[in-house]
Amino acid sequence: xxxxHSTRHxxxxxxxxxxxxxxxxxxxxxxxxxxxxLDGASQTALLFSAGVAVAIxxxxxxxxxxxxxxxxADNVKTVGPAILILFLIGAVSASWMLxxxxxxxxxxxxxxxxxxxFLFLACLICALVSIVTxxxxxxxxxxxxxxxxxxxxxxxxxxxxxxxIISGAYFGDKISPLSDTTVLASSVGEVPLFTxxxxxxxxxxxxxxxxxxxxxxVSLCHTSGDAEQSxxxxxxxxxxxxxxxxxxxxPVVTGVLIAFRLSATIVLFLSALIAGLAxxxxxxxxxxxxxxxxxxxxxxxxxxxxxxxxxxxxVLTNLVQTRGMRGMLSTVFLIFCAAxxxxxxxxxxxxxxxxSALAGGISGRRSLVSSTVATxxxxxxxTGDQYLSIVLTGNIFINLYKEKGYxxxxxxxxTEDSATVTSVLVPWNTCGMTQSVVLKVPTIDYLPYCFFNIxxxxxxxxxxxxxxKIFRREEExxx
Length: 479
Description:
This protein is an all-alpha fold. The protein is 75% helix and 0% strand. It contains 24 helices and no strands. The chain has helices at residues 12-33, 41-60, 65-78, 80-98, 101-112, 118-133, 136-153, 158-175, 180-188, 193-221, 226-240, 249-259, 264-282, 284-290, 295-304, 314-320, 329-347, 350-360, 365-383, 386-404, 408-422, 430-439, 443-446, 451-466. It is globular and about 65 Å long. It starts with 11 loop residues before the first helix and ends in a 13-residue tail after the last helix.
């Protein structure tokens, strides 16, 4: 981060003002605009809050614009790879839907996965897929979309279904050695990757067991007129799409690509291409309809433009509606604005002031871990990006952990238990924005049901209070 050249240190209480402004504006924005908040209102709130931070620093503390501008530019650069993946996710989700891959998964899934265990299995399936892929985003954008359809057919609310999908996907992402966030957290904590993963199991497994138990109980208690609704959706899918087990080749090939440990960007790109080919082979009428008689136009519009197919059922029409890459533009806009806000706070020195004040009250392992968890959540809210939050939290506390004599794996675990899993709970964070758009569920609606993401930071603090498997650096490690 660029150096801070203020004539006076910004007090932590003053540094909280832009954050308070942002939270107040976001509450007002959500109240007034509801699900349309991402169309521009949330972005405006972020930029206005960034302006408040800049005004306070430049006018009251003589921080030069050059220092702030450099920090904003650095933040914006870091979100480039995420934006490319975001566009590819839009292409994959649209091509998987219109090629019939997702409708086929929904059709067969409804026959295999019953409503009495649906949430439990949805969470477990996403966990397994995410462990293999190392990516919660890829899991949610593929199998997650299909599970949303199955959940709707079984009569579950979109909030409950999205909560089960996200909980499983983030559990798998968190403990997968292929996950970039897992690698990043172990790196900032200066801990070997598998040492970090093994140590995370102490807090992660109990959190996931609690989560699965909740979803199992809710599934077993679920009662509704599912049979008729499921039958109508299955019939509707057959009327609109060609349902064929051959279409399952697309997710199988995607899984093979993942097994070869190709990057998420390459996997998503190739998966979209294969789904496009499947669309020509299995859904020629849909290609012609989307392209208004021109097949090439239909393919291109599938990838970049939103499409709506008239199925005769409002539920099914909404289910198979796609947004494509163009549907991600408001999210990309929000990501840039969130990066600008985070850069403004770091460039003015406000983040450093807040975290320094937080570190000043640390006396033992309980307050140390609690402060780390709180900083991870706070960073997700002010920077709008989980990667920045992981790096920021690690950099702030690594020397403090060393000074207090605690192991680096305690820092890396506490960072993952907060910065990684809570990112999807923040509406203006890149993760919260992305999953909201992909699953077509507002962040506020699925937040109460993301039990793994809520329990994980609390479990981290609980284990620290109990002192279980927490050692000083000089003590012999047994994990």
